[in-house]
Input
Amino acid sequence: MRREKTSVSQEDYLKAIWEMLEENQTPISARLAEELRVTPPAVTAALKRMTRDGYLRVERSGRIDLTRKGRQVAGRLALRHQLAELLLTDVIGLSWARAHDEAERLEHAISPEVEALLLKRYGKRSVCPHGVPMQGGVAKLRKQGAVLLADLQPGEQAEILCVYEKDARFLEFLEGLQLRPATRVAVRQREYDETMTLRAAGRTIHLGKPATTRIWVRRSAL
Output
């Protein structure tokens, strides 16, 4: 059977909804408009078309959910995105801070044949350059007991598993602090404004809530 072709625009919507669900956010029109940088009327029109085509459903509350068909397309696109990131960082040496934005462009152009070859090369890799699990996303981390760095208390230690990848400036900021997946951190102090003092990579680091809510960790023994 021939696979139904989706447009780049449809794929962007599906992946954005899929990522919101993975990150435990409630997909609604306003969030989609902000994420995709389009107008609310454009979102409304797109959702109507994609509901008609069987990719999603919109509940009376406004919550958007993917159908099985929509999840298959979104999951495949998310996988191609991660494969593109690995190709960009491993083969041509692109920095991890820029890999996400470049992969956003490449993911739509990867053919099934190229996808198969990339899977053959990277299939044994469990995570993308930012630590996000392949074919599972952040939801897989949560099932494995991962928590946000912001959830830790003074005296706790953890290993960084993955970081928010959509903000290149944030990734450059983490790179400067040597905070990458597999780095171990120890929480020394937590202020009233939720700023945290950490010990990591042999140095003392201060992180605010905008950063600590974008870093997933696994608690470790003292």
Observations:
- The first helix runs from residue 8 to 22.
- The mean pLDDT is 91.
